[in-house]
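Intended use. Records like the one below are meant for learning the mapping from a protein sequence to its folded structure. Do not use them to infer anything beyond what is encoded.
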Amino acid sequence: MSSIIFKSQTLLSRTSQKLCFLVACLWQFSCGDIPLDQKVQKVQDGNESEVLASEGCRERKQIASPHPQVRFVDATAEAGIDFVHTSGMSGRKYAVETIGAGAAFFDYDRDGWMDLYIVNGGDLPGYVSADAPKNEFYRNEGGRFVEVGEARGVADTGYGMGVSAGDFDNDGDADLFVSNFGRNILYRNEGQAAGWRYRDITSGAGLGEDESWSTGSSFVDYDLDGDLDLYVANYLEFAFAEEDLGAAGGLQRPRRHLAPTEYPGRRDFLFRNDGAGRFVDVTAAAGLLNVECRELGAVFFDYDLDGDPDLFQGNDATPNFLFRNDSGHFVEVGLFAGVAYNEGGKPEGTMGVDVADFDGDGHLDLVMTNFQWESNTLYRNEGNGLFKDASMDAGIAATSLDRLAFGINFLDADLDGDQDLYVANGHIDEDIGRFDPQATYGQRDQLYLNDGQGRFADVSEAAGLDLTIDLVGRGSAVADYDNDGDADLLLVNTAQRAVLLRNETDGAGNWLALDLEGRVGNRDGYGARVVVQAGGRVLVAEKRSAASYLSQNDARVFFGLGSSELAERIEITWPSGIRQELLAVCGGQVLKVVEPMAGASHKTAIAAGRPNNSSSADNGDLARFWEEAPLVLPAKTQAALPPLVHPLAKLRIAAKESSGSVAAHMGLANALLRKRLYAEAELSYQRVLAIDGDFALAWVGLGRLYADQGDLDRAVEALDRAVALNATLAKPHYLLGNIRLRQQRLDSAVPLYERAIALQPNYLQAYFNLGGLHARQTDYGPATDVLRRGLEAMPHEVELMFQLARVYFAQARYAEALRQLVDVVSAEPARAEAHELIAQVYLAGEDAASAQEALRTGLSVDSTSAALQARLGILLLQEGEADEAISLLQRALVADPDRDEVYYSLGQALVRRGQETKGRKLLEYFSALQGEHQKILDYKTAVVLNPNDADAYYNLGAVYARIGRYRAASQAYQAALLIAPGHLNARNNLGNIYLRRREIGQAISAYRKVLELDPDYARAHHNLGNVYVIQGESALAIASFEKAVAADPQYRKARQMLAQLYRRQGRLAEAEVLEVTP
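Structure written out for the chain above:
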């Protein structure tokens, strides 16, 4: 018989102990008086367990109020915590200074009180602290903390990020892992005999090689072998750059922190515990290797109830990942499960992550914080392997839109039995007010109370969180630090003091906590699932390591019982598969539960088979649609130019008859440029300059011409010359701004556009581009200023009104956005994008009915708008009207095949309908578009800036070809050739599209045209050789491959094909020569 002892510890004293009486008599529960030496035996799943009897539940801690008043107070100083975070911030805007740090609560000395480890940052170039920053470790002495970091050997001085605690060596005490910007640290707890000191064993444990930028971490028994493995998340490939610095060491020009996508992402690590004190990198073998995660939040939880821990990766400005654990090997399912992107099909800037059953359906849901103007996201676990974005329905979307959030914690603040939500907020730019007047650096945290039905209400002000209004929040950790049964919070604020919030809720419910200790599985019991039945409710939780943002919560598992005095039944499923059942467990205590040693029971696995109603014909139709979907460009690129005042023939005659006239040659040159006759246009501009070398407008024309041809260096040279000759011309400044924008030199573009506006106050396109440039960088203050100045100069310009409305919407200034949009629709009733934005304003205010009305109004005047169809379809899906939604989304897809959110929403809808194969195919197409989303956007933007940009069309074609959108690729290449007939790469790639589609004659024609223009173009020879191979023309194929190799002796593919053909002819010696790398 295995003996399981449940130790009950009161929480008001370190030393007082009492026993709680557990009795089960069939299904009748009683907590009356029973002699203390009586024992009750119970058999469950073949495991006989022994329980100490006790006095029962006669003494209740408190009586729950039906309307508890949740309140938190600052107990930092009273509790003895004196920690100030060091960010190293000096004004140089290094990305590392924005991240902040986390903290962990754990009981390192096994005295029943939660101790606290807080991670610090450090000095950076340009900043030196008076005292070297170090991490701090606080021993909890009955609710008051004493700093013991150096005494315990854990006062790390690296630039810290996160922390996780776990008993990796199963010796009964908590070890510690600290993630850093630089070398990470693994500390082993040497135990009571060594005075509870820690020892750095990083190198000996095999964890010292990666010294990049680690963020989140988690101890987890991923392979269920009984010991804790270690997962380490990494963020960016970052180095300190000095090129932005001026002579004084500061930035040359004020700017915001660069987006994380400006840096390459870093791979993550999964280390398997070999049981002998070392960790082995098994990331690739386990299926987790991902070279560009940009990961901050990571949490393991069993989302599919198959008994092993799955992994959710929260990535910054990059799609999130959900890895399903299949017996120790991970398979990425985030896209299909619905958690990779938000409901609109967009990746978000995920920071912190937490898990709980917020709606009481028995499935663990996901919540995460995001960047400002994105809103936080709550994904409801539907129990069939799928998640649904429930942020709007749950009431957390609109209230979080204007915050930049990091830490996030599920907790039962009022102990009523449902999961509430705490969010730690704070911006990353200390001077954000310079760029966005709506935003502040310090931001008040938020507390949301759950109404028991999965709907949250923001009670931050009433709960006393105004004390956080100036704090710049990062990590947050939950613990009952004072052992009074309710959830307290520790907040780590960047470059500020840490704050301990004590829960002083009046009228809170009863509670119960379980302190789990594994024996067959890992000693911490990480991964154990606990189901509590109390007062007619079923409460579910899992014990795990990581939580929130770079932090770890109190490892005891807490349950709010509301008005119930006891838990009628508790079932624990341990990671080993052993199940344990407890009956009639009294509230108001922490119960120590030790895993039985006897044989394990069966695991419960979900059987979520769904009918698959898709046919292969459906997928064939989808594949054809994808390949044949046309190129769709912004309307601004399709506007017709006004007709020439004089026909081109007349202009030619005028230039010939007036050979010394600047005006005649300029008129002809400009007309030729409009007709894209670049060689003749350049000659005409040169004739102007031969007459008058200082004629600035001729240099402007040459600058435009060279920019059209993609020769940006010559374009800049010509435009700079124009400015030097005539500084009062607005056009060259504007064109130079466009070039800098194309080159992604955004800071350089701003003064150029500003100068163009100063010289020509009614320069519409300059206002439009400059406002868009600021908005793209979320510099909404400057964007608003630019657009308002434009409207002062041009009060009736609808384009500026609409762009200003978009900026107002991005800032959550909904009333002002709506006023602008009313004016836009009044002036242009058929402007679909205005009706769509009106709907988004209503949705932000959670007025779905008005949003739907706005969308239907828009469709009544423009029934073909893909934007309106898509937005209404997504809204109807949320409202449960799937039939009409699917029809609208299908129409939107046909109208605009580049709307990635339509693929996402339609794919998710079909998966939920049981058309899994078709739905998954749409999600695959969505993923392909998302992978190239930024490039498509950039190249389309380039075309808007300059409709004669042949390289932009060529690059767009290359992207479409890469993802299999062959018709769109073909159209983009043809557009490039229309502008630049001599664009060899475009013509060659167009031939490749023809060849792929087996349009052999057109392919041959394309390759031959390339070779007419450049006989040494090796790829065209090679491609022509492939055509001849398909046709069975070996001699012609050999001749083409020989020309390819002659033109480029290093051309490996051509050498390989030629060698193969030589071998077929028995020319072995010649083949061997080709097969040797030159």
